[in-house]
Write a structure and sequence with these properties.
By secondary structure, this protein is an alpha+beta fold. The protein has one helix and ten strands, in the order H-E-E-E-E-E-E-E-E-E-E. It has an eight-stranded antiparallel beta barrel. Strand 2 and strand 3 (about 75-85) form a beta hairpin. The longest helix has about 30 residues, at about 1-35.
């Protein structure tokens, strides 16, 4: 499994490195007419995570968020805040999670790496939770000149050494609507 994960990480890195320069010229011309700034509103579903068990999210938690993206020819920086409540319980609180992602994009596909730091409110453990990371792989489908629909697969991990414990069932889903200005 470690070898497979290492090979897939190397393949993804090689793809990102080879795609970025090749698409820069193409995308800069097409993006010149549309904005380099976007806002995305999204929803995220949290599932049971087998490797990262101490995160502040439980199975069936739903997060909603808003992010600002600064776009360049080959990718974008995404900075945002996510709100997550516990729909299954009345006694537990909610979290606010600021995050930053760096994504590389080629036409409709994007991939990236992010950092997240949840803040717990109205619980016994109020305060900042541990910093963690996530891999993103998504599809952005244009819905005209200014809107697009995003569907993203997200894999959270706490330590880089945990990547060898990757399981597809731990990939969670997010969907959002992006407005370009």
């Amino acid at each position: 499994m470690k070898t497979l994960l290492t090979l897939s990480t190397l393949a993804t890195t090689a793809l990102l490195v080879s795609v970025a320069p090749a698409t820069a010229a193409r995308r800069s011309a097409s993006r010149a007419s549309s904005g380099r700034h976007t806002l995305t509103a999204y929803g995220r579903y949290y599932g049971d995570h087998s490797a990262y068990t101490n995160r502040p999210f439980q199975k069936d938690d739903i997060g909603v968020g808003l992010s600002y993206e600064y776009r360049e020819a080959a990718g974008f920086w995404q900075i945002g805040l996510e709100f997550c409540s516990r729909p299954g319980t009345r006694t537990e609180g909610y979290t606010l999670t600021p995050f930053i992602n760096l994504c590389f994009q080629d036409r409709w596909l994007f991939a990236g790496l992010g950092i997240r730091k949840p803040y717990l409110l109205d619980t016994d453990d109020d305060g900042w939770s541990d910093l963690y990371y996530n891999w993103l792989l998504g599809l952005e489908v244009p819905l005209g000149s200014r809107l697009s629909l995003n569907v993203t697969g997200i894999y959270d991990f706490y330590k880089w050494q945990e990547l060898d414990e990757f399981k597809f069932r731990d990939v969670e889903a997010s969907a959002g609507l992006t407005y370009r200005f």
